[in-house]
Amino acid sequence: MSQSTVSSTATHKGSGKATKMRYAVAFMLFLTVVINYMDRSNLSVAAPLISEEFGLDTAQQGLLLSAFGWTYAAMQLPGGWLVDRVQPRLLYPICLVLWSVATIFMGMAGSFVALIVLRLAVGGFEAPAYPINNKVVTAWFPERERATAIGFYTSGQFIGLALLTPVLLWLQHALTWHWVFVVTGAVGVVWGLIWFVLYRNPVDSKKANAAEVQYIREGGGLVDLGSTKAKSAAPKLNKADFALVLGRRKLWGIYIGQFCLTSTLWFFLTWFPTYLVTYRHMDYIKTGFLTSLPFIAALAGVLISGVLSDLMLKLGASLGTSRKLPIITGLLLSMSMIGAIFTDSTALVITFMSIAFFGNGLASITWSLVSALASSHLIGLTGGMFNFIGNLSSIATPIVIGLLVSATDFGPAFIYMTVIAAVGILSYVFLVGKVQRVQG
């Protein structure tokens, strides 16, 4: 932006000490992620009762639990295309309301096929969510604060799951599994309308003054992303764009790494409650409490990760070290879940799971690498490809585990998850290399 434009903005917004509107935006993203993951995980809460009502075997359960992932992954590239062209203020509430309405109808489904179809709809409409999150945080935060912001809003997935999973299990116990979907969907519809009313891009916001906008810009924030004042038309996608997004080794490093990281997350979002109920023979109320413990550990991990990463950067560590070290360490810790194979103690099982999910949380600042590596005009497309490949795990993990486990032995699932985490470590170590923005 030219100096004259900055002066004009200052005249409009006033001058003086920089405002802190970006923190309010981070809180809005946090609440959106809470709702997003509540709608991803509600099926795992209801899955045992749904399976009982419809007489589903483990392979069918795996298919139902993976249905979200089919459309969620398939729509990442179209979603990324939309994110590069439609303002977050408009695109996010449209997606929120549509996936929430589909969630409400899941509570009214009367057949296995209806549940599959509606879950496919939820996945498709949620697809642009994380590329939008990345676009918003890239616009609103300078590089030195971005990992903390990403860690904060990402913590919403764990806070929501840790605190709300017991509530949803209680709701299911008090009423029926149908109400789990009706209530979570209704919350999403309301929040979609609130987002539309409140959200603005940095240069469009009346709450962020010129000093804050300039602070963000000078720190590497792309303050014009998604602005109504942007004069240039969105570029058309071409073969060169796809060649750039698909042809760089360091980008493939984060794509593969994200698949491995989200595999652990999707284990906890799909099979973990069933593992406790079916293989550990716990009742639903106790399961709700014990399920929340690993999510609390993951929350601690993701909050530590963002702050630690930005602190390392401020103390002089390279951008690559600051971003990759927490991710690699987290993947290493997530391998601890294999310990569950070797004990019959419920306390030790939950301990191993909590360490593993703490590691998953510690590694969950991977979107900071998308912000740092993606070409500035392809933030959405790169984020879409990153999320597409990463969330193929939402398809693979439920199905592979459903095929690997037997009615009495869950051990092969833990072996699979450990191997996947090891592949993720190798990807970040050998493929990503120096962290710098891809030019093209």
TrEMBL record:
The keyword Transmembrane applies. PROSITE patterns: MFS. It is a multi-pass membrane protein. CDD domains: MFS_ExuT_GudP_like. Residues 25-436 form the Major facilitator superfamily (MFS) profile domain. The keyword Transmembrane helix applies. PANTHER family: D-GALACTONATE TRANSPORTER, SOLUTE CARRIER FAMILY 17. This is MFS transporter.
